[in-house]
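Question (not urgent): is this output format expected?
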Amino acid sequence: MSNLINAYAAFEPKGEIKPYQYDAGEIADQDVEIAVQHCGLCHSDLSMIDSEWMPTQYPIVAGHEIIGTISKIGASVEGFALGDTVGLGWHSAYCQQCTYCDTGDHNLCAQSRPTIVGRHGGFADKVRASASSVVALPSGIDLVSAGPLFCGGITVYNPLVQFNIKPTDKVAVIGIGGLGHMALQFLNAWGCEVTAFTSTDAKAQEALEMGAHQIVNSLDASALKKARDSFDLIISTVNVTLDWNAYLATLKARGRLHFVGLNLEPLNIGVSSLMSRQLSVSSSPIGSPSTIAQMLQFAKQHHIKPVIEQFAFKDINQAIERLRSGNARYRCVLSH
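Got this back:
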């Protein structure tokens, strides 16, 4: 049986994505091979392709929002069968020996292996990963749009679980894009009163349709002042620097400003703002496989779907340019 994988790879930063073939070798005992059907595009893919976070090893096959069926199974794998429909996200393996893995917090494992760092991901016809990182999809969920749930979706869902967000909480989302549009849907279904902070008038009506109950123009200083002492939680999905102290002022006492968008600049936050009203500032990565499974059930039950633009794999450069331009509404998905 062939171990060749046909993929699409970048060979230099910001370079054209080109066909690429590699030999994956014999499948490891603890791994499964997934025949890729759909794969979402994420800004993290761009960051790795462009070598923004760390020196990227080229060629790189990106793609970590993967939906497909199991085509090979390692000798030690239990719980999966050939043909099972599954998904794979940011992590492709965990150590399975640390305290975090033992207690179900696999996403915090220091030895976790990202799907597209030092290995090849889902811009391909097949991808391999440890069975421990693969999650079965519930029957009936929309497969074409499910891929972005495995990165963007779980990134905004995880804080709701980690911080015991209540249906009576008032929650705001900064940035209505690839992450934010899913956050609005999850929060609305969770039962929260949802506010969208956006600087784009064109997105205001869409934000209301996706679950926001009200809109605040983030460029309007008077609107921010009017929102003082309003929110139990603010989720920031953006990767740019804003006036964080102005947003802290919109939190209630004991409120939380939580970052899921990766801003590489240091935060300029006054401690006095936190201390006087016992505020918290926090961040979180994607969730564990068990939380991903819970999120998928929640999404199915409440008919939550990422809004996508679908492209054929052969049009991968067109899709990447759509994402790079910032014009995608709201996630791009490649399909075989």
